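Working notes for the structural subgroup meeting. M.R. asked for a predicted model of this chain before we commit to crystallization trials. I am recording the input and output together here so anyone reviewing the notebook later can reproduce the run.

Input as submitted:
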Amino acid sequence: MKRNTALTSTFTNGFDSDGTLTAQSLSKAHREPLRGVARGVLVAIGIALCIVPNAGSSESVQQKNYVDYKTYSLYLLDFNYKQYNCLDALYTHESNWNPEASNGSHYGIPQGNSEWLKNQDGWTQLVWGLNYIGNRYGEPCVALDHWSKYGWH
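Returned structure, recorded in token form:
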């Protein structure tokens, strides 16, 4: 097999005569800077893994850390103040916005008849309560009207 000598001379610095990489290693002068970079990268990855808030969680940071229950419910109602005022009146009567409130087999802010609801945080209870109201009454003002007539919703 005839080799192209111009091509062969171009690639001889890192290859053996059969074309494979040589077993050359970096000089000691080059090892320490690379080790330092590698250590820096590992430290940066470690720090990033430690400071990521709620890593892997589906919960909203805004939802749990910066907003109270009433403001969150207003957000869930797309800032519809009329419906919010009805919900505020309803939940003030039912639980006074206390996620730990209970009345017999009814729990949380919306006073839902659900054992599951008892173990949820207030933000989850609000989502559950608004879904319940939406499915049963359509909107909080209709639920408040029902509560005013019958004492329950």
